[in-house]
Structures are given as C-alpha cells and as structure tokens.
Amino acid sequence: MKKEDLPQDPGALDNFTREVCYVKNQDGKYETALSRGWDVKKEALDNAWVEVNKRIEEARQAVINGEKSPVFYFMELRLMDVPLLSGYTGFLAFFVKRHFKPSVFKGLNDRKLGKYAEAFDITLQELKNFKG
Amino acid sequence: MSYDSQIEEFQHVQTAHCENGVTTALLRHNGLDFMTEPLAFGMGSGLFYIQIPFLTVNNGPAISFRTMPGAIFKRTCKALGVEVKSKKFGSPESAEAFLNKKIDEHVPVGCQVGVFHLTYFPKEYRFHFNAHNIIVFGHENGRYQLSDPTMEVVTSLSDEELSKVRFAKGTFAPKGHIYYPEKVGIVTEDMIRKGIVKGIKRNVRDMLHIPGSFAGVDGIRHTANHVRKWREKLGIKKAGLYLGQIVRMQEEIGTGGGGFRFLYAAFLEEAAAYMQDDRLVSISEEFTRSGDMWRASAIQMAGVYKGRLTEQKSFEDIADRLVEIRSVEKEAFQKLSKLNLGK
User: Fold this and answer.
1) Looking at the structure, do residues B112 and B207 belong to the same domain, yes or no?
2) Which end of chain B, N or C, is less packed with Cβ atoms under 10 Å?
3) Is residue B310 a part of any domain in this protein?
4) Alpha carbons within 13 A on the beta-carbon side of A112
5) Does residue B118 form part of some domain?
6) Using the beta-carbon criterion (under 8 Å), do B256 and A21 form an inter-chain contact?
7) Where in the sequence is the domain holding B257, given as residue range(s)?
8) Which residue, B157, B183, B209, sits at the end of a domain?
9) What is the C-alpha to C-alpha distance for residues B228 and B17, in angstroms, rounded to an integer?
10) Average pLDDT over chain A, rounded to whole?
11) CB neighbours of A43 closer than 8 A, spacing ≥ 6?
C-alpha cells in the first residue's frame, strides 16, 4: 500500500486513537503512517454490531414471552456465550443452561444470583426484577 | 502506598500490533535501541494464517493472520539471548502484589489483558478477546499508568479496572499473566543476523510445511473452499457476516494493514540491510503485493456485506482471489527457503 492510498475514514476509533499502518513512501521504502480508519472495515464492524443487537433484542423478547430467564438476556447483552459465562461464574455449562429456564431461575438463591450479577456488572435487584 | 511511583525514563512506543509493541518498548527500555516493530515481528516469526476447524468466534469463522499469542515476545527475546520472566497467578491479590513489587523496583512489565472490560477502549471494539497486551510502568494517584502500544498516547486504569482485565475469563484467559526481560546481555550484530535468519526459517516452516490443510498457505485455500459454499449454506446475510469477520481479523487496528503482510514486507526490507542482501528486498515486494491483494479482497467482501454483491459469482471471485493470494505467498516463502542465508 502506498502512503497516499492510506484511507482516512472516520469511525469508532475517532476520539480514541489513530492506528499505525505500514505504507510505502515515495522512495519505495516502508514507513509507518497514522490512519483514522477505513470504511471497508467500519462496515464490517457496524454489521457485527447490528447482529449483536438483534440477538439482544431476541433475548429480551424471549424473557417477555416467558421462554427464557434474565440470565439468558444479560448473557447476550454482555456478548457472552455459555462457556464464557461458565468461566465468570464458576457454574458448569450444564447448570448455566438450566438457569436459562424461568422456572429454575425463580428457585435460585441470592448467593447464586449474586455470582451472575457480578459477572454481568449489575445489581442483584436488576437481575431479579428484569422483565424484558 | 509504597508503589506510588513512576518509571520516568520509560518511553511509550506506538505500534500496529500490541505484542510487537510490548516487545519493542521493553527491549528498548533495556538498552536494545535498535529494536523496531518489524524486526520483533520477523524474528518472532509472526506471520501466519489459520482457520481453526470447528471453532467459531463471535459467531463467525475463527481466522488468524498471525502466530500464537505470546510467541513473538518469547522467540525474539530468545534469539537475542535475553532472559525472560513470565508468570501467571492463582489470585488477583497475588498478581497485584507482584506487579506492585516490579513497579517499586522500577521495572516496566508486559501484562496480558482482556479487552471486554478495558474501559478506555471504544465500546465498539470491546469484544471478549483476551490476547491484548499492554505495559504497566507506574502507579500514581490511585491509578496504574499504562502504555497501550496501539494508542498514540499513554493511558491509565484504576486498581479495580486493571485487576478485572488481568483476570478476564474465557479463551486465552490471562490469569494475571505478567512478563518482562529479566537479564539482557550484550547483543552483537551477528546475533541480530542469526535471529533474523532463524525467524525467517521458522516462518517458512510454519507457512509451507505445517501439517493439515487449514493452516499456513494451504489454510488460505481452505478458507477459499469454504467461501464458495457460504452463500448456499448460510444464506446471503450470514455469509456477509462471515466475510466481515475475515475483513476485521485482517484489517482491524493491530494488523498494520493487509493481514500483517505489509509488516512482514517491512521486516524483510530491514533484514536486507542487516544481511547486506538485496534478494530480500525483492521478496519483500512480493509480500507487499500479497498485502495489496488482501486489501483488494476486503473491498470485494465488503461488496457482499454492504448488500451490493449478491450472486454466487461474487463468492467465486472472492475465493479465486484467495487462491491467487495463496500462490503469491507460497512462491514468496519458497524463495525465502531457497536463499541459503546460513545458520
């Protein structure tokens, strides 16, 4: 890539940093240059977020419909999956999946719910009272 | 607090890739002023390609354009006879105590961290990715002072925030991982040249001779074969998300552009000067070409996820280009392997 071809498109990196890229200068030698971003990858990132937000919204609907517990919703909200949530809470994957059931969730004690609340960075009340 | 101190002479270095950056900055801090990001990347045999089978990351294909996390620092230090200390911890308390001790001793250290809870990152970039690397070089007013190599300036985190990212969970969980050069001896030009040769040879091995069809240059063809089937198998929308994931792994902050290929080309250009060997300059050009082709393929892929390209032919075109990239890289590494650079 030639230095003059380095894109400078605005994006999520604005107000954070410009990124180092390796480009060819006029003498055909490599040097570093700073880039604001590139639309091609910005679109990819934006698309990934559209997908994430879709999953979160579907999880919220599932809670409203009584199909899933708040644990499932907050897992999606925090971009987690079952193995990761298992890592943060210490519960085996099998039990995490069980806790997605509203009926099982209702019977969980505060100690167990507290582990989820901590993993999700929310209060115990927020977790218990989430209705969708 | 006793560890309220700052390592005044520490110089922040901004680089494309975080692990290169930590390696470069820590070695420079320890007197190896010649160290640059391309040199660290090349000596550490950083270039790679792999599509990990049966694994998805963030609901997309698990693709990497560089070698295993941690390998670049370890290999580059070893090549230069630098003794390394590397430590993981059972508890956040012991991890913090050890870090504070190093700051007290005025030793800047590399820390592996998770990105999801990294508060200074833009929200859009905060996925669960645990192989990010930063340098901690001080503690002031209740906050750790950090040098994040992907950033233009230094930054900071509170004690709680740092502890949280050092104990992120999931794949590559850092477990408080801390690392730094412990003993740096005299490094001669000859050692640098030997390190360059070793780095190139190992990279030739990784890209040409790794067993299986999903890694090295053959891995690129493996992905191409997948791409041909994605439209049919996943539907146009999901196929677009998968292509977007490739583009992000290839072009996002941390790669230097073109899936680390420009960075490797820059390394070969530097290597040519150390080795007094112009053949390396012409092979460097081939990696520039490969990087440019990766960028062109990203533009094609964007056509799909922007909804402009929808036909199977577009997927075939993308796959054909990937196969072409494989040939360019295969040829370039074959040339490197035939150079007879010595031991």
Assistant:
1) no
2) C
3) yes
4) 14
5) yes
6) yes
7) 189-337
8) B183
9) 31
10) 97
11) B244, B302, B305, B306
Q: Where are the alpha helices (DSSP H) in chain B?
A: 18-29, 37-43, 71-79, 92-104, 159-166, 189-208, 216-251, 261-275, 279-305, 312-337
* Residue contact A12–B125, C-beta within 8 A: yes
Residues B174 and B205 in one domain: no
pLDDT < 50 positions in chain B: 1-2
Q: Are residues B246 and B217 in the same domain?
A: yes
B230-277 confidence digits (pLDDT tens): 999 999 999 999 999 999 999 999 999 999 999 999 999 999 999 999
Query: What's the CA dihedral at B47, B53, B58, B63 to 10 degrees?
Result: 20
- In the predicted structure, residue A78 carries a pLDDT above the cut 60: yes
Both B243 and B152 in one domain: the answer is no
Out of A21, A43, A45, name the one closest to residue B16 (CB).
Answer: A21
Residues on chain A touching B132 (C-beta within 8 angstroms) = none
Asked whether residue B23 falls in the same domain as residue B101, the answer is: yes
Q: What is the pLDDT of residue B1?
A: 43
- B101-141 pLDDT tens trace: 999 999 999 999 999 999 999 999 999 999 999 999 999 99
Inter-chain touch A16–B121, beta carbons under 8 Å: yes
B240 min Cα distance to partner chain A (Å): 9
Q: Given A20, A22, A24, which is nearest B14 (Cβ)?
A: A20
**Amino acid at residue number B211:** P
In a domain, B202, yes or no: yes
Report CB contact under 8 Å: A44, B248: yes
- Closest-approach residue (CA) in chain A for B260: A22
* Domain termination residue (choose one: B143, B162, B183): B183
